[in-house]
Amino acid sequence: MTTTITITGAGGQIGYALLFRIAAGDMLGPDERVRLRLLEIPQGMRAAEGAALELQDGAFALLEDVEVTDAAGTGFDGCDIALLVGARPRGPGMERADLLAANAGIFGPQGRAIAENASPGVRVTVVGNPANTNALIAAASTDGVPAERFTALTRLDENRARAQLALALDAPVASIRRVPIWGNHSASQFPDISHATVDGRPVAEALAERMDDVPAWLEETFIPRVAKRGAEIIEVRGSSSVASAANATIEHTRDWVLGTDDWTSAGVVSHGEYGVPEGLVSSFPVRSVDGEWRIVEGLEMDAWAQRRLDATVAELVAEREAVRVLGVL
Ligand code: NAD
Ligand code: LMR
User: Fold this and answer.
1) Strand 264-269 vs strand 281-289: parallel, antiparallel, or unpaired?
2) Which CATH superfamily is domain 2-152 in?
3) pLDDT grade, residue 281 (50/70/90)?
4) pLDDT at residue number 323
5) Nearest Cα residue to 253 out of 139, 129, 159, 123
6) What pLDDT is attached to residue 143?
7) What is the pLDDT of residue 222?
8) Does 135 score more than 90 pLDDT?
C-alpha cells in the first residue's frame, strides 16, 4: 500500500526534521510505502526543493515519490494525511496566541483545499501555532470533511510532562503512563498527573515518597515547567523546538492510524465532554481505536483540576472570539 502525505512548511525547520523520518518508515511502519507532497509558499520553495533532492539521495526503500509545490490544490491532491506545519513560529517574549493574527489566515484556505482535493478519509494534524485554534479554523472551513478529521498536536506537551516526571522519580520515561494534557497547547495547558502511573503504581504516591509537598511541586514546578517548556527552548536554543516537535508529530499521527494500547493526548474537537464547549479543539486524554480518536470519558476531576481545566478552556474560547473578530471564522 502507499499513503500520500502532505507536509506544509516542508522547507522549514520542523519540515526538515520530519521528512526523512517519514521516508524511513518511522510514522507508518516498515511495510507502508509513502508518497510525499511538500507544500510551501514561494519563499520556501528552494528550501523544500533542496530537501526533496536530499530525499532522493537517501534512497529510501519506502519512498515512492516526492512532489514540491506552492499550489494548495496540487499539494493536497489525494492526500491521506496532512501535516499542517507551515506557519510562523514565535520568537522570544511572545506567547503562541500572539501568532493568531499572523497565522490564522493560512488555515481557512488550507481547510478548503483539503476538502476539495484530499482523499475522503483524510487525517489532518495541525502543528503550526496556535495549533488548537488553527485546527478549529481549518475544520470550520471545510464542507464535507468531518471535524473529527482535524486534530492539533499536544503530544509534545505530554512527552515533556512524562520526561519531567521521569526525572523527578529517577525512573525510565517508558515506565510513566497516563499523563494527559487538557486544553490548549499554551502556557494555560493542564498536564494532569491524577491518573498517572510509574511502573503501574500511582505517580502521586511515588512523588510523595520523595517530597514533602506534592501539590506545591505540581503548582510551582511541574506544571509551569511543562507548560512553558516551549519558551524555555526558544530562550536556550534561540528558536523554537524542532526535532522534539517532529517526533511528537510522528507519534501522534502514527497512533491515530495504527492505534494505541493506552491513553495519550491529542487536540480533538469537543462534543461537550467534560464541559468543554462543543466545537472547540481541546486536548483531552484519548485512545485511538479503529483509526479514530476517542476521548477517555468518566474521569473524576477534583475542584483544583476543574479550575485548571476551566482556565485553559477559557483561553480557547477567547482565541475563538479573537479569530471571529479577525473574520477568519
Ligand atoms: P519555520 O519558520 O522554520 O518553517 C515554517 C515554514 O512554513 C517556512 O518554510 C515557511 O515558508 C512555511 N510556510 C509559511 N506559510 C505557509 C503556508 N501558507 N503554506 C505552506 N507553507 C508555509 O518554522 P518551524 O520551526 O518549522 O515551525 C512551524 C510552526 O510549528 C510554527 O508555527 C511553530 O510555532 C509551530 N510549532 C508547534 C509545535 C506544537 O507542539 N504544536 C511545536 C513546535 C513548533
Ligand atoms: C513548542 O511548544 O515548543 C512550540 O509550540 C513552539 C513554541 O512557540 O513554544
Assistant:
1) antiparallel
2) NAD(P)-binding Rossmann-like Domain (3.40.50.720)
3) very high
4) 94
5) 123
6) 82
7) 98
8) yes
CB of 129 sitting under 6 A from ligand 2: yes
Checking if the pLDDT of 327 tops 90, the result is no
Distance in angstroms (rounded) separating the CA atoms of residues 19 and 12: 11
Question: Residue 93 to residues 127, 200, 227, 228, 232: CA-CA distances in angstroms?
Answer: 20, 39, 15, 12, 10
Interatomic CA distance for residues 35 and 264, integer angstroms: 27
DSSP 8-state symbol, 61: T
The angle subtended at Cα 179 by Cα 185 and Cα 172, nearest 5°, is 120
Query: Is any atom of ligand 2 closer than 6 Å to the C-beta of 233?
Result: yes
- Place 278 in a pLDDT band, splitting at 50, 70 and 90: very high
Burial of 164 (0-12, 13-18, 19+ CB in 10 A): buried
| Angle between the N-to-C axes of helices 13-23 and 45-57, in degrees from 0 to 180, rounded to the nearest 10 | 20
Q: Is 271 a catalytic residue?
A: no
Strands 197-198, 190-191: pairing kind: unpaired
Which pLDDT belongs to residue 192?
98
Task: Please give the average per-residue pLDDT across 75-102, as a whole number.
Answer: 94
CATH class in words for 155-320: alpha beta
- CB of 52 sitting under 6 A from ligand 1: no
Q: Is the pLDDT of residue 220 over 90?
A: yes
Domain ranges of the chain: 2-152, 155-320
pLDDT at residue number 119: 97
Give the global pTM: 0.98
Residue 232 has pLDDT above 90, yes or no: yes
Which three cell numbers mark 205?
Answer: 504516591
Which of the listed residues 13, 88, 96 should we mutate to test ligand 2's pocket, taking the one with most ligand atoms within 8 A of CB?
Answer: 96
- The rounded Å distance from CA 45 to ligand 1 centre is 14
Q: What is the predicted pLDDT for the residue at 329?
A: 85
Residue 308 CB: number of other CB atoms within 10 A?
22
Q: Return the best residue to mutate from 127, 132, 241 for the ligand 1 pocket (most ligand atoms within 8 A of CB).
A: 127
Closest CA relative to residue 197, chosen from 103, 263, 275: 263
Cα distance between residue 323 and residue 318, in whole Å: 9
